[in-house]
UniProtKB/TrEMBL annotation:
One of its GO terms (molecular function) is DNA binding. Pfam families: DUF6596, Sigma70_r2, Sigma70_r4_2. GO terms for biological process: DNA-templated transcription initiation. Residues 171-270 form the DUF6596 domain. It comes from Micromonospora noduli. Residues 7-70 form the RNA polymerase sigma-70 region domain. This is RNA polymerase sigma-70 factor, ECF subfamily.
Length: 399
């Protein structure tokens, strides 16, 4: 494992642990970044526990900084206290360090967009371009949100803790959104390998922790079910040569059956509660996809109709159009795409291209594939789109 992989896997846990030790998120992040810089300079071989090494080094860096910047006795005393604490034997000595950090970053005093942007940066170790893609906004906008959120946490002295039980329901929506976006970035990364298994695994682990903390919240169970059912399909998502394989073409024998069984059980538990929400409906859609040898598309479309009523977003409308194509044909689905505004999202022109190709409008389809490939930031997805475009070119030459 190289340092870049360790950074992706350990960054969020290290920042969470340091935030607990220091009580200062800014200082924690800076110390962890300094520690990784030191690792780059010093590591000849990997230490037995890279995460613990990073935490220990980051803590020592923070102690040194506190001493240098100390202008009052209390600041110096804090540095001494940190210096004499036992060195951590593992990255997360307190099991819910990362949940604490999520709830801190998702405090209601922060703007909704800033909450998730900050948490994705601190917990997932996502860079600003990756977060911008998740939000479908400009990178400068994301950077400003993160800076403002950190300042607000510091100025308002927002505590680093899991909220009291009566506070949890109001704080839940942004936490769920963070875990959802974290998993999505792992399942379809902005750049580099298409799938970041470390990020997917961490999002699922935190969703399990949250479900244990709030077992009676159906949306928590719905999110966990959605992540499990999506993760179950991951082994079939790439072909032998690393090329993208769409759902319809996947080898279902490769799917993770224990995860599917667990996800289906969670969906049934949600249904019994009869309090539908967006994550539960998305989980139900994934359950239909993983139930049997073929997808029941009319059922999927009915569920997307419910989801669109609850969450009328452009991405939901786009996904619904895919189901429309399977039930009512590509012409009806193409009409459903009209008015969807996702200017920087490559899956909109990619979907349009596929529908146009099915209608035999190959010239228009090729142009749409070109547009989608230009917008795609992940090389695996871009290669798939370029391959589809090439196939249409061949069909045109032989026709």
């Amino acid at each position: 494992m190289d340092l870049a992989s360790i950074y992706r896997a350990e960054y969020g846990r290290c920042v969470a642990t340091l935030a607990r030790l220091l009580g200062d998120i800014n200082l924690a992040e800076e110390a962890v970044q300094d520690a990784f810089t030191t690792a780059l300079q010093k590591w000849q071989t990997l230490p037995p526990n890279p995460g613990a090494w990073i935490v220990t080094t980051a803590r020592n860096r923070a102690v040194d900084r506190l001493r240098r910047e100390s202008t009052r006795e209390a600041r110096h005393a804090q540095a001494l206290l940190l210096y004499h604490q036992d060195e951590p034997s593992e990255v997360g000595p307190v099991r819910d360090d990362q949940l604490r950090l999520i709830f801190t970053c998702c405090h209601p005093a922060l703007a909704p967009e800033a909450r998730t942007a900050l948490t994705l940066r601190l917990l997932g170790g996502l860079e600003v371009p990756e977060i911008a893609r998740a939000y479908l906004v400009q990178e400068a906008t994301v950077a400003q949100r993160i800076v403002r959120a950190k300042k607000k946490i510091r100025d308002a002295a927002i505590p680093y803790r899991v909220p009291a039980e009566h506070e949890l329901p109001d704080r839940l929506p942004p936490v769920l959104a963070v875990l959802y976006l974290m998993f999505n970035e792992g399942y379809a990364s902005t750049a580099g390998p298409l799938i970041r298994t470390d990020l997917c695994a961490e999002a699922i682990r935190l969703a399990r922790e949250l479900a244990a903390l709030m077992p009676d919240e159906p949306e928590v169970l719905g999110l966990l079910a959605l992540l499990l059912l999506t993760e179950a399909r991951r082994p079939a998502r790439l072909g032998p040569t690393g090329d993208l394989v769409l759902l319809a073409d996947q080898d279902r024998s490769l799917w993770n059956r224990p995860l599917i069984a667990e996800g289906h059980d969670l969906v049934r538990r949600c249904l019994r509660r009869n309090r539908p929400g967006p994550y539960q409906i998305q989980a139900a859609i994934s359950a239909v996809h993983t139930d049997g040898a073929a997808t029941d598309w009319p059922q999927v479309l009915a569920l997307y109709d419910q989801l669109l009523a609850l969450a009328p977003t452009p991405v939901v409308a786009l996904n619904r159009a895919v189901a429309v194509a399977e039930v009512h044909g590509p012409a009806v689905a193409l009409a459903a795409l009209e008015g969807i505004d996702l200017p920087s999202y490559h899956r909109l022109p990619a979907t349009r291209a596929e529908l146009l190709a099915r209608l035999g409008r190959n010239d228009e389809a090729m142009a749409a594939y070109d547009q989608a490939a230009a917008l795609a930031t992940n090389e695996t997805e871009r290669a798939y789109l370029q391959t589809r475009r090439t196939e249409l070119t061949r069909e045109r030459r032989t026709s």
